[in-house]
Amino acid sequence: MSDEHTDNKIETKSADSSSGGYAPPAEKIPVQEAPDQELYHAKSFWTKWVFCQDAKVIGVQYALTATAIGMIGLVLSWGMRLQLGFPETFSFLGPATYYQSVTMHGMIMVIYLLTALFLGGFGNYLIPLMVGARDMVFPYVNMVSYWMFLVAVLVLIASFFVPGGPTGAGWTLYPPQAILPGTPGSEMGIVLMLISLSLFVIGFTMGGLNYVITVLQSRTRGMTLMRMPLTIWGIFTATVLALLAFPALFVACIMMTLDNLLGTSFFMPEIFSMGEKLEYGGGSPILFQHLFWFFGHPEVYIVALPAFGIVSDLISVHARRNIFGYRMMVWAIVIIGALSFIVWAHHMYVSGMNPWFGFFFATTTLIIAVPTAIKVYNWVLTLWRGNIHLTIPMLFSLGFIVTFVNGGITGLFLGNVIVDVPLSDTYFVVAHFHMVMGIAPLMVVFGAIYHWYPLITGRHLNQTLGKIHFWITFVGAYAIYFPMHYLGFIGVPRRYFEMYDSPYMASGVGLNQFITVAALIVGFTQILFLYNLFTSWYKGEKSERNPWKANSLEWHTPDYPPTHGNFGKELPVVYRWPYDFSVPGSDKEYIPQDVPPSQVPTAKAETT
Amino acid sequence: MSKKELNIFKLLSQKPWEPSQAIIDDQHDGKTLASSKAKLGVRTVMIVSTVIFSLFIVSYSDRMLVHDWKSLSEPWLLWINTAILILTSFVFYKAKIYSEQNHFEKAKNSLLFVGFLSFAFITGQLLVWQHFIGIGQYASTNPANAFFYLFTALHGLHLLGGLFFWGKATTKIFKENFNVSKTKQAVELCATYWHFLLIIWLILFGLMIAT
User: pLDDT digit string (tens) for A529-570?
Assistant: First the structure.
């Protein structure tokens, strides 16, 4: 750390100043040694809005692209629900369409929507603003990253239009079935999917490079790592996870592409297909599963950690309290990130493994509950006796806590081998992972959009539409996923496109129809949200500067909304963490990060 | 690095809300590590590549246990290619030393020689491919072949990526008024990357001839 050379001086100073208030000498800040970052100044429309190197524009581009492809994922889920609720009713549905919808829905939502939105969207927009940087460290590479993502999305969309349609192998793309005839899309669909994923990984690595190095090296003066908002901690740790986990997906994709196109046998065992013995032999499908889940489990936290970070900030700002246990929140993020690399085989309990292997992975899985529970307690304790404003971001944050606890607790069940084996192929698992990594992070996404929309556009989203959006989404999500737990318990298998008249479906048929109707309603509400998003852009209520009275730097830029270069002539200097709400003795209700101690002389620090 | 050693435990136990910590924190210049951002960028790329190659090696060791594994023959050309790559790395090291000592004319020659050697290496690898295809050893013939083609292709692609940046560095140094410190850094980083690719190749090649 750079503070080491100043350590000795500081010790003596702090001795006389620790009795109360801040020490005035800290006011003097040495001049900046490093020259300011040179930025590319856009001259034409194209370089300003299309091939743009400004992280804020890139963030919005990422978010819009992710939302667009996410809407396709949403429509695909309607296809699935119509098939399950009302089988043999719609001529455009059937086994193949069902499996293609399941696969594309899963892949789109997890990777192209949530990962891209949290890291590409929020990461790009918020990292430079929140750490006090003018832009990302490599703006050009950052721009290329977005365009790689766009190409990946276009390749994915192209797979809908090739002969055979998109792949229907399930979002896990398990070989051998993924590339054998009989699986929908085994002709071109699977190849385009694998290429699209490889492109996504390459593009993401370029972006990830930027996020990590910007957080590490480009912070403004006074912004130590432990003064960063938890949003940045979450995005930063998730990016590190992604840089280490996505290579596994890349490796698996490359080898499966070769198995498919060149006839190699990396993953393909000796196999008969359509009555004929194929050329393949000796490959291990389990190896693919290990590679896939070595990526797949960290991926869960790549989505969850930014959500954890963002929701911490939303709760703190909208409850006007400092976050309870800031350090523990940071530790929990880092520990969850580290643990996420040694739990992957809990997705493979039913693939067959040495019992001790399962025992090990069950143990590590359950250990993750500890830091996660700490986070939940800290959110609740932040709310405790807080001045809770029931704004829309706060509503979504509360929705997140409840949903996350819900999905987390079913995760404790499923982490045990003995409970997982009977439940693994049922709707219980579908309910679990949608609650914990579908609905919960989406609640944060929505909360974050309502929170930062004024910063991006200078206008508020419509509040009435927002409240309708929240309540239907929140209640609707429970209407969809609570019955699914029950379906799982009575043994309804997932992945089946139709249950026909299985005896145990007696109580399930009506429930399935109910879930489908709820899913359609929740889905249409998202269109309402999009309508709100687009119309508020030009006719929303104008927002005053810093409408939520937040402390972090992004709200304190000279231009509002922030312009190219973020901070005008001088970069801000940071004097405190972003959680100084209701500081005892202070006449101000909140103290932004760039306010020096001399301006709030009466503020006292609570000793801990 | 001496001044900015990163002690993660010390860092994570800071209490940012305490007045005594605030005084220390106010002096912080916002950088966590003493390296330049370009250096960190190259390092991050190398870490990600290392993860990729490690996972391939894990897959290789898993796959070779199956009975159908038949090791490839080792054509002498592969040894020559390896020697070329070692020489490339050495010349790049010299180029870096020259540019550090401001002997830019010598550095220019070395850089050009590096480019020539690198393309010679890639050509050599393609000749090995041609040799194997000629004797009917295709990627689908045996998993050992498949891994050989995969490893050489990925390593070659990494080298081509490196050559793109070598091209940028070389163009810089041949300009009339080049930015000395930036050019030096570019040469240095390219050299590091070349050494990295040499190590990767030695590991992959060693793995393939040992099994």
Answer: 999 999 999 999 999 999 999 999 999 999 889 998 899 888
Contact yes or no for B55 and A577 at CB 8 A: no
Sign of torsion over alpha carbons A456, A457, A463, A465 = negative
Q: What ipTM is given for this predicted complex?
A: 0.94
Question: What per-residue confidence (pLDDT) applies to A35?
Answer: 58
Let me know if residue A20 belongs to a domain.
no
> Is residue A554 a part of any domain in this protein?
yes
pLDDT < 70 positions in chain A: 1-37, 606-608
The span from the CA of A393 to the CA of A448, in Å, is 7
Domain count, chain A: 1
A276 forms bridges with which residues in the sheet? A273
The C-alpha angle with vertex A233 and arms to A215 and A318, in degrees rounded to 5, equals: 120
Whether residue A311 is contained in a domain is answered as: yes
Please report, as a single letter, which amino acid is at residue A496: Y
Q: What is the pLDDT of residue A24?
A: 43
User: Among all chains, which residue has been given the structure tokens 């932040």?
Assistant: A382
Q: Are A265 and A219 in contact (CB under 8 A)?
A: no
Distance, in Å, from the CA atom of A78 to the CA atom of A80, rounded to the nearest integer, reads: 5
3-state secondary structure of A244: helix
Residue A590, phi then psi, degrees to nearest 5: -145, 150
Q: Is A209 in CB contact (< 8 Å) with chain B?
A: yes
pLDDT attached to residue A16: 37
Closest approach of A353 to chain B, Cα-based (Å) = 15
Closest to A240 in 3D by CA, of A309, A334, A146, A326:
A334
CA A341 to chain centre: 17
Taking an 8 Å cut-off on Cβ atoms, the answer to whether B16 and A224 are in contact is: yes
Check which CATH number belongs to the domain holding A568 and give it: 1.20.210.10
First-to-final CA distance of chain A:
23
One-letter amino acid at A17 equals S
Kindly list the distances between the CA atom of residue A381 and the CA atoms of A378, A386, A469, in Å, as whole numbers in the listed order. 5, 9, 27
What is the rounded average pLDDT of the residues B40-68? 94
Q: Are A82 and A111 in contact (CB under 8 A)?
A: no
Q: How far is CA A595 from CA A489, A562, A603, in A?
A: 56, 19, 12
Secondary structure (3-state) at A276: strand
Q: What is the rounded CA–CA span in Å between residue B199 and residue A413?
A: 45
Within A340-492, residue ranges assigned H as helices are 355-383, 392-415, 417-423, 427-434, 440-457, 463-489
- Report the sign of the C-alpha dihedral through residues A560, A561, A567, A569, in that order: negative
How confident is the model over A45-61, as pLDDT tens digits? 888 888 999 999 999 99
How many Å apart are CA A519 and CA A439, to the nearest integer? 12
- Name every chain A residue with its beta carbon within 8 A of the beta carbon of B16: 224, 226-227, 326, 576-577
B43: tokens are 């390092």
Over residues A375-422, the pLDDT tens digits come to 999 999 999 999 999 999 999 999 999 999 999 999 999 999 999 999
Residue A311 CA to residue A291 CA, distance in Å, equals 31
Element (H, E) at A438: none
| DSSP bridge partners of A493 | A426
What is the 8-class DSSP label of residue A491?
Answer: T
Say what the pLDDT of residue A49 is.
81
What chain A residue is nearest to B29 in terms of C-alpha separation?
A: A221
Q: With respect to residue A471, please indicate whether it lies within any of the assigned structural domains.
A: yes
Of B12, B23, B33, the CB nearest to A327: B12
Q: Is A426 helix (H, G, I), strand (E, B) or coil?
A: strand
The size of chain B, in residues, is 211
**Domains of chain B, first to last:** 37-210 (1.20.120.80)
**How many CB atoms lie under 10 A from the CB of residue A555?**
23
Q: Give the domain extent around A60.
A: 55-271+280-599
Residue A272 backbone phi and psi in degrees, to 5: -100, 135
Q: Using a CB–CB cutoff of 8 Å, tell me whether A261 touches chain B.
A: no
